[in-house]
Amino acid sequence: MTGNSKVKGKMGKLIKNDFLASARIIPLFYILEAISIVLFYIGDKTQKPLPLGLGVAFTMIVAFLLIFISLFFVVYDFNKSLFSQQGYLSFSLPVTSKQLLGSKMIVYGGWMILSYLVFTVVMAFTGQYVSMDVVGEENMNMVETFLYMFMPTLPPKSMLIVYLIYYVANFFIIVLLTVSMIYFSIAASHMRPFQKHNVIFAVIIFVAVAVLFGILLAALNKFFRFDLAMYDNGSFGLAIGADPYSGNYVALMPVFGYIAYAVALFFGTSYIMHKKVNIK
Q: Where is 204: in which H helix or E strand?
């Protein structure tokens, strides 16, 4: 298998090759998404119901498909390029197992993140269109007035910025953690005891890894709190201890848990690839 004695400095070529391999199919769906948006724009400007309806429908459908296609290639390429007959070529390259794995993480994790971002933007855009042009501005104003009755004051701008940064960071980390869990499950399923039924064991291992992470994270949150507290005057502080902070706060412990688990899975997957994998 790959070892540390092999020549370093090939990471850029690995990323380039993985990107070119993935770019054969995935960008086609982005082109379809762009065509759907153009169709929606034409229908909106001409007020013709057929192109408008098709544009809205295709824009949302393609956005959904982007996520599933990206997820499919996360699984398909990792399995094909490393654990099929092609794996002999991949593992013979003058690179380490960490570099092979890191390249896959960067390229396919990047595609997953981009697909989720496109999906989020599309859903927000179509949602705004439906709320304003279909539901009507007057009805939306009534809804906003109703909500204001129950939430008369909004958090300070600084808090909103912190919430935005927090949830965006969580989004990126969770996507990469999910990819790490998938790669660990596939690699572990190709060890000799599991290889005969590797697909079934890949699913079982993924579920086990996810459940274990949930248990560990719940234990951390129960016995140790580490939060960013936000006060009404716009200042911030750290709330550390077993008891949750009673005011506005964002929990930092899950973020560190996500990162630590992803790192552990990365090194675990790399070790399995280097020492334990049995290539077909």
A: helix 198-223
- Give residues with Cβ within 8 angstroms of 2, minimum separation 6: 91, 93, 95, 96, 97, 99, 100, 273, 274
Instruction: Indicate the helix (H) or strand (E) that contains 110.
Output: helix 97-129
Is 189 exposed, middle or buried (CB count within 10 Å of its CB: 0-12, 13-18, 19+)? Answer: buried
What number of other Cβ atoms are within 10 A of residue 181's Cβ? 20
- The pLDDT tens digits for 81-119 are 888 888 788 888 888 889 999 999 999 989 988 988 888
Task: Give me the numbers of helices (H) and strands (E) for the chain, helices first please.
Answer: 9, 3
Rounded Cα distance between 221 and 212, Å, is 14
Q: Which residues pair with 236 in a beta bridge?
A: 230
Strand, coil or helix: 98: helix
